[in-house]
Amino acid sequence: MVELILQIFFLVAVILIWFMIAYQLVLTIAGYAHYVASAKEQKHVDAVPFDFPPVSLLIPAHNEEKVIGRTLEAMSALEYPKEKLEIVVINDGSTDSTADIASQYAKQYQNIRLLTIPPGEGGKGKSRALNIGVSKTTSEIVAVYDADNTPDPSSLKYLVAQLLLHPELGAVLGKFRTVNKARNILTRFINIETLSFQSILQAGRWKLFKVSTIPGTNFVIRRSLLTKLGGWDEEAITEDSELTVRIYMENFRVKYIPYALTYEQEPETWKVWLRQRTRWVRGNNYVVSKFVREIPHFKNKFLGFEVFYLLSLYYIFLAAIVASDIFFLLGVTNVIVILLPGPYTAVWVLAVVLFLLEIFLVLSYDREDTTANFLLMMLMYITYCQLWIYVVARALWADFVAKERRTWVKTERFDVENPSGVAEK
Questions:
Q1: Element (H, E) at 87
Q2: Domain tally, the chain
Q3: N or C: which end of the chain has fewer CB within 10 A?
Q4: Averaged over 342-368, what is the pLDDT?
Q5: What is the C-alpha to C-alpha distance for residues 197 and 215, in angstroms, rounded to an integer?
Q6: Nearest to 75 by CA among 218, 210, 288
């Protein structure tokens, strides 16, 4: 009986691994098609004489003294009409010099203002800060940037242009790059991960199913839709994915455009990375528990499947990694004899090679298909990817066993020598 169970598990593992690899290959091809189409679309957008509407740009800031000055420098350089752009720094209970720095910029630039959340009410999470910020502004289009972001001058106008061209869009997001990617091996890993996620899952899913996910920064949303949705869910510690699902439930779309660029910091220590990624998974656990019963009622079944896949991504990735590890160990050690005929070790190696080649291809879009990055990718598979087992397990334990209270924790910032990212392009 035990042998039969092991044979079945082994077969399921093979199917699971190859399903993910095959689906990711389809998304990779679709993502490439989206990048080609986006290059043409950008030229079209550049040729249209838009009458841009007013925009309220919100920057939630909690103890951001290391980055807020550079961020506001980048915001002041945006090509969007200055008289139609309101930049609001939401000082969310900062205990450092964030407010002082933002106040200096508010004195220098007429369209920058500082909104300070009253003492005792701040530091309760990004969702709450954004809801307060929205309530103090009036523009129909709301833009959100994290306090460490330094967008390209053209980024905001590209995002807004999509809302003007496509009324079916509820929100539009751009691409983010890692400004501190060269700091250490962790930031190099994260750089490869984020570029792959955007080029495969964001671009590929948009091209195939018109589905993409708000990343929490470098995006715009219609105020009318946001009001209808009741703003951000203040219980959600990953407010971006939660809001994305509700936008689709209202039959609006969320589009990804890779030519609206911003540059952001990523964790530089494993401790900060672990805390951030655990928050992401716990936030996803909340979103799953909130919406999983709603998915069968989606009118668009393909959309329902994609939302389900989005919500299940962490768990599917965990299962695939665990299955892959067991698959490999069984194949090379023969500790358990697999009676099912087949070259399983070769199949496992082929799956890993295909996975690496897919990622290497999408890195070429950003001219990062270097030998060094390919070697890093191989190292990532046996180190960084395996750590996700611990991250997901840690989050599941916290939510469903220990039942710890979910709290929003800001990602620690670091001094950045090249905030503009110009030398990183």
A1: strand 85-91
A2: 1
A3: N
A4: 82
A5: 11
A6: 218
